[in-house]
Specification:
Shape: elongated
Oligomer: single chain
Largest sheet: 5 strands, mixed
Number of domains: 2
Distance between the termini: 170 Å
Strand content: 15-25%
Strand order of the largest sheet: 7-6-5-8-9
Radius of gyration: 46 Å
Order of helices and strands: EEEEHEEEHHEHEHHHHHHHEE
Helix content: 40-55%
Length: about 375
């Protein structure tokens, strides 16, 4: 009597059966066919018992590899997502849309994250939990203007499509949550490169606040970095005499924040060069004004007023001012002779002849 096995799967005229010994075997099915679960003869084997074991081992390897891949997708960091409400929180997200880290970027965020279960939860759940706690702690309310900026950037080269889709789902759910609480707020999503995220951290800002800073300057709103470091986006823009709603909507339409950063950097370099040029020009002007031609400077010209010299010094200064200038020398008959002085009682053109003793003429 031929041994039989239970039919597990059918493919064309062949099937996979489980033998009484626990092996898998591929056999040709009877002409009339067979249903799953039927016992079919094992005489016409397509697989040996050994090949069945190989297939089972291969299946186990594939299952293990799939579990390892899924584990890596849920724990490996793939992107950063920043939620700016003031508090500002940065979330590390895996490719499978699971939050693996949360960092408070200001003091307000410390209280929001305290005790918040975020690890392993979906991005939408964590963003909603942060928004809910911000409402409970008074950072979002119906009595004041509000803004929620959700910004994402890659951890390496690019943001996985699943994370990007999760960001937009989080935005939609945040809008719905705020509307249910009758809170008016601008909810904005922005995207930037990993390089801009590093620049933002160098300036002690979240990525979202730095992108808004770039857009504000493009719109002519002079927001200061120090304001954004300690205040919310709405407060900083309003203090700079700008409209937060206008700036945020322009930022959401912005095509290249990298280009904005490059232009702003060039403008600052030109401004610094202009300042250095003006400083050199002023220094040169001062040097020229300090160089006085002609006679040596009197004490007053040297910057010392006569009153500062005392009574004796003032008398000396007066005598110096009234004294005749140095005597000019003239060449007379091959020798030097002092020019006639104009003393008291002498009129111009009178006195001793120049160049000889009294009583002698020059002829």
């Amino acid at each position: 009597m031929d041994a039989k096995g239970k039919l597990l799967s059918v493919e064309g005229g062949w099937g996979v059966v489980l033998t009484p010994g626990g092996d898998f075997r591929r056999v040709r099915l009877p002409r009339g066919g067979a249903d799953l679960g039927d016992e079919v003869p094992l005489g016409r084997a397509g697989w040996t018992a050994w090949s069945g074991r190989i297939v089972l081992a291969a299946a186990a390897v594939l299952v293990a590899a799939g579990l390892w891949w899924w584990s890596g997708q849920t724990t490996a960091l793939a992107a950063y997502v920043t939620v700016d409400i003031n508090p500002s929180v940065e979330l590390g997200v895996s490719a499978a849309d699971r939050v693996v880290s949360a960092t408070a970027l200001d003091q307000d965020a410390v209280g929001v994250l305290r005790g918040l279960p975020y690890r392993g939860r979906s991005l939408e759940q964590v963003v909603l939990a942060i928004t809910q706690r911000s409402m409970e702690q008074g950072f979002l309310s119906a009595e004041k203007p509000n803004a929620v900026v959700i910004t994402y950037s890659p951890a390496r080269r690019r943001v996985p499509p699943g994370v990007e889709a999760a960001v937009y789902r989080a935005r939609q759910q945040t809008v719905a949550l705020l509307a249910a609480r009758h809170i008016k707020s601008e909810v904005t999503t922005l995207k930037a490169s990993a390089r801009l995220r590093r620049l933002a951290h160098q300036k002690k800002l979240s990525l979202g606040k730095y992108l808004v800073y770039l857009e504000a300057h493009k719109q002519g709103v002079p927001v200061h970095l120090s304001q954004l470091q300690h205040e919310s986006i709405v407060q900083a823009i309003r203090q700079a005499k700008g409209k937060a709603r206008q700036v945020l909507r322009a930022a959401q339409r912005e095509k290249s924040f990298r280009e904005l950063e490059r232009k702003l950097r060039q403008e600052r370099l030109r401004a610094q060069q202009k300042e250095r040029h003006q400083a050199k020009k002023q220094a040169k002007k001062h040097r020229k004004s300090d160089q006085r031609p002609g006679q040596p400077a009197s004490p007053s010209e040297a910057g010392t007023p006569p009153s500062a010299l005392g009574s004796a010094g003032a008398q000396l200064h007066l005598m110096w001012a009234q004294s005749p200038r140095p005597v000019q020398q003239h060449v007379v008959r091959g020798r030097l002779s002092p020019a006639p002085s104009r003393g008291r009682g002498s009129a111009p053109g009178r006195g001793a002849p120049v160049g000889g003793p009294p009583g002698r003429s020059m002829g």
